[in-house]
């Protein structure tokens, strides 16, 4: 496996009041991937991004990006890192064009009108290039943040809640744009409250709570290992209790006795095969049923089970 593009080792941040925002975080990011960092409010997501982007000084630990130790060689790595923050931090009376061009200049790059035009067109901002940012909609302002972050062509891009506060249609458009960035070879670290974004786009998922990384794995492996299949079987006649013939299965009986709820598929098991085996056992036991409704767990279910009600 190639050297990670970003590596965090023992990263810890304790604020003056004693709050530990990051607690001994170890994390490696692979070149070219989309990595989704999920966690409830206050979990440490934004602090982690701030530490890598030079906005937060870690209490201890190391950050290595592109082979550089950021504590010693910050300037060598900073120009290769982009950030789309949650909040708009720019002159609202500035035009879109000037704001994006200025961001490019901040990194010491020569003016490149063709590149700025390409970025604005890719984000459907070209028609708004001469508009003041204050006149734009919330979704358009969010796109300006992305354009500013892309102006210096970063190889590693942080997106901190990039679709917060925008409508569903704009959110889908941004998903497409993020996918296009990945096609260009940009490595993307995404924090989001919309877990369907992670489920749709991420190659790997990390879950953080209380400043600690609870899990990091390929999305597909998480779903396979921790996912479940539920089936609700509507019975033709009520049962007073679960018969011994099916008691070995992970099944519960509804209070009215008219349905059974089967929950399986965790670990390496295949939920659909387990349900098929269970229904055969029902038939063999002479238990007649009318309906079967199945539901596969989603990443959101796994996330909530890990972080608890505070999510």
Question: What would the average pLDDT be, to the nearest integer?
Answer: 84
Spell out the helices and strands N to C: EEEHEEHEHHHEHEHEEHEEEHEH
What are the low-pLDDT stretches, counting only 5+ consecutive residues below 50? none
Distance between the termini: 34 Å
Give the biggest beta sheet: 6 strands, mixed
Strand arrangement, major sheet: 6-7-8-3-9-10
Query: Percentage of helical residues?
Result: 25-40%
Total number of beta strands: 14
Strand percentage? 25-35%
Structural class: alpha/beta
Query: What is the global morphology?
Result: elongated
**How many distinct helices?**
10
Rg calc: 24 Å
Short description:
Helices cover 32% and strands 27% of the residues. It has ten helices and 14 strands. Strand 7 (156-160), helix 6 (168-183) and strand 8 form a beta-alpha-beta unit.
Question: Care to describe what's here?
Answer:
Strand 7, helix 6 and strand 8 form a beta-alpha-beta unit. The chain has 311 residues and is an alpha/beta fold. The protein starts with 5 loop residues before the first strand and ends with a helix. The protein has a six-stranded mixed β-sheet with strand order 6-7-8-3-9-10, sandwiched between helices. A four-stranded antiparallel β-sheet has the order 2-1-4-5. The protein has a four-stranded antiparallel β-sheet with strand order 12-13-11-14, covered by helices on one side.
